[in-house]
Design brief:
The chain is built from 18 helices and 27 strands. By secondary structure, it is α/β, with parallel strands linked by helices. The strands form seven sheets. A seven-stranded mixed beta sheet has the order 24-23-22-21-25-26-27, covered by helices on one side. Strands 6-5-4-7-8 form a five-stranded parallel beta sheet, sandwiched between helices. Strands 18-17-16-19-20 form a five-stranded parallel beta sheet.
Length: 616
């Protein structure tokens, strides 16, 4: 706390957290949680699936690029361009890069977030945005990264800044020393067990504890990348000397240390006990449904995936190779491996790691994202059981089968054993599939449309309500990633909720003017704008939720979709009831009841009245 004096008046200023310092340095003003600021963005990126919509948004709004040297495309979702929709979108982005001079990391280069710090574009104290919900991986190097939707990124490319609401800060303290077989992946799975899917919702977390100083860059990447799965804005690490040296060498320039002030205020402090921690796994469907590996050991698997932005770095591949060396993948099991970047791929080749994988019988893909992107190795089929080192295992996200999340060591051991196992329990002979049927080990069977505003939009709405009594509805449930190549809004509506159990026929029942009311953490997961635009396509006039995923909330506001936050989903409303909304006051009423929600902020109302962020 610092003593300041103006005239005869003395007052104290509370110290700042890491996120507050970074944002303050990029808007040149003192910041506090809840304040909305214009934040300068050092590096602005768009991926191959979102890049085409960014280009369309820019062209539709007649916007120019603020600084091409700070702007780039990264093609990491479909590095082979093997899907016609992706290929078309990638080519559109290539042509735009040639026209404008913005940067391009093509299909040969790997995951954009990893390229950003690997090439020294980002370092401690930097700001970075991308059409990637795991852009918060930048917290590993003490930088601020944020996934955003297509309109946000288009605006950032044109203005060099974005509006941003300063988040509250949380401190996560890792207590104790993990066991000999535990890894950073096991630590973050333990964090998910403690915090749950929404435990960091709306927070920027700082990861602290005695163990943190010894965590490598790769360890920090693994932990930071999964803050999204806890609902967090970002998980930040204070950069130590090793991180500073890495960033300085990668960028060929100086990066200064950055740390929270000793008297910084945290709205939440959570202790996570990792004393003696062993290997863990997340059960299919929910990254937060984690358990000791022993509780799922013995499950027969069809495939194993090693890679993703969470666990595809060189050290991850080294650890997997150490387990696989001199061994073979179990008969009938497919092991798929994807390095994060070309540099990692080349280093793995030079070190002989690739040969270990090939000798074991693995399939190695282009550098890039994992199967969760639907354009890369790692997708599975109906009934297929997969162990993955990725960060997500939402139903349908990596295919139609079951996906368990685990560390590279556990994944490699499982590939050898044919069943889920740890590295200290690999059987001498693999568990085989039984002839005559599958049995487990127990023997049991776009065209962008810009809306011009000619008159004030109504702030009082009325419509028929749909009560979707479900929490943590992720963007794959709203608009599945297999439709991401669709950029025409009028084609999006038909796919709304078709991956949400019990609501697959929603698009055939909803009528223009209807209102959707749902639970907490609505829209968690990916950064896709389509998960908002599909409702616009159907004519849904407003959304009400107890809370929203942070990226989804921005996408909805920027798209001009009226959204309200109101606690208390179980209020006696039923499908078809008529509800009335007052956007200015946040009041929700119906015959026989009312609910007080949060009123529109000035920024939200301004964007809504304009018809969207890019309608100038």
């Amino acid at each position: 706390m610092k003593l300041c004096k103006v005239g005869r008046v003395e007052y104290f200023i509370m110290g700042m957290t890491l996120i507050e310092k970074i944002i303050a340095n990029h808007c040149d003003q003192k910041v506090a949680p809840g304040a909305t600021v214009d934040m300068r963005v050092d590096v602005r990126a768009a991926r191959d699936f979102g890049g085409a919509n960014v280009v369309k948004n820019l062209r539709a709004a007649g916007l120019k690029i603020a600084d091409p040297s700070k702007t780039l495309f990264t093609f990491d979702c479909n590095p082979g361009g093997s899907d016609q929709g992706y290929a078309a979108n990638q080519q559109l982005c290539r042509e735009f890069a040639r026209e404008t001079g913005v940067g391009l990391r093509d299909v040969t280069q790997g995951i954009g977030t990893h390229i950003a710090f690997e090439d020294g574009l980002v370092g401690p104290g930097s700001t970075f945005v991308s059409t990637d919900s795991h852009a918060n991986i930048m917290g590993a190097v003490g930088a601020f990264g944020q996934g955003m939707g297509d309109q946000d990124i288009a605006y950032a490319w044109s203005a060099g800044k974005v509006w941003f609401k300063v988040p509250k800060s949380a401190k996560v303290i890792l207590i104790g020393t993990p066991g000999a077989f535990a890894t950073a992946k096991d630590i973050v799975l333990k964090m998910l067990q403690v915090l749950g899917a929404g435990g960091l919702l709306g927070y920027a977390a700082e990861i602290t504890g005695d163990l943190v100083e010894s965590l490598t860059l790769e360890d920090r990447v693994t932990i930071a990348s999964m803050s999204t799965e806890m609902g967090g804005i970002i998980s930040l690490f204070e950069p130590n000397a090793a991180i500073l040296d890495f960033c300085r060498n990668a960028g060929g320039r100086d990066f200064q240390p950055i740390a929270a002030d000793a008297d910084a205020h945290y709205d939440k402090i959570v202790e996570v006990n990792i004393e003696g921690l062993g290997p863990m796994a997340a059960r299919p469907g929910h990254p937060e449904d984690t358990t000791d590996l022993a509780n799922v050991a013995g499950r027969k698997v069809d495939s194993v995936f090693i890679g993703s932005c969470t666990n595809g770095r060189l050290s991850d591949l080294r650890r997997a190779a150490h387990v696989l060396k001199g061994r073979k993948v179990a008969p009938g099991v497919v092991l798929k491996i994807v390095p994060t970047t070309r540099a990692v791929w080349e280093a793995a080749l030079e070190e002989g790691i690739v040969k270990v994988f090939m000798d074991a019988g693995a399939l190695i893909g282009n550098a890039g994202c994992g199967g969760c992107a639907a354009g890369q190795l790692g997708q599975n089929g109906p009934g297929e059981v997969t162990v993955s080192t990725g960060n997500r295992n939402f139903a349908g996200k990596q295919g139609k089968g079951e996906v368990y999340l685990a560390s590279p060591e556990t994944a490699a051991a499982t590939a050898i054993a044919g069943v889920i196992t740890s590295i200290d329990a690999i059987p001498e002979e693999p568990v085989l599939f039984e002839i005559g049927g599958r049995r487990d080990v127990n023997g049991e069977a776009a065209t962008t449309v810009t809306t011009t505003t000619t008159s004030a939009k109504p702030t009082k709405l009325e419509g028929r309500v749909w009560v979707v009594d479900v929490h943590n509805i992720d963007t794959d449930m709203i608009f599945h990633n297999r439709y991401l190549a669709i950029t025409e809004m009028d084609k999006m509506g038909q796919y709304t909720f078709d991956n949400l159990k019990g609501w697959e026929d929603f698009a055939t029942k909803v009528k223009p003017g209807d209102i959707v009311m749902t639970g907490s953490n609505f829209g968690c997961g990916s950064s896709r704008q389509q998960a908002v635009d599909c409702f616009t396509s159907l004519g849904v006039q407003a959304l009400i939720a107890e809370s929203y995923g942070s990226i989804y909330e921005r996408n909805a506001i920027n798209g001009g979709m009226p959204i309200l936050v109101a606690s208390g989903l179980k209020v006696g409303l039923k499908n078809g009831d008529l509800v009335r909304l007052d956007l200015a006051t946040g009041l929700i009423t119906w015959d026989g009841g009312k609910l007080q929600g949060e009123p529109f902020s000035a920024v939200q109302m301004q964007i809504y009245q304009r018809g969207g962020l890019l309608v100038l």
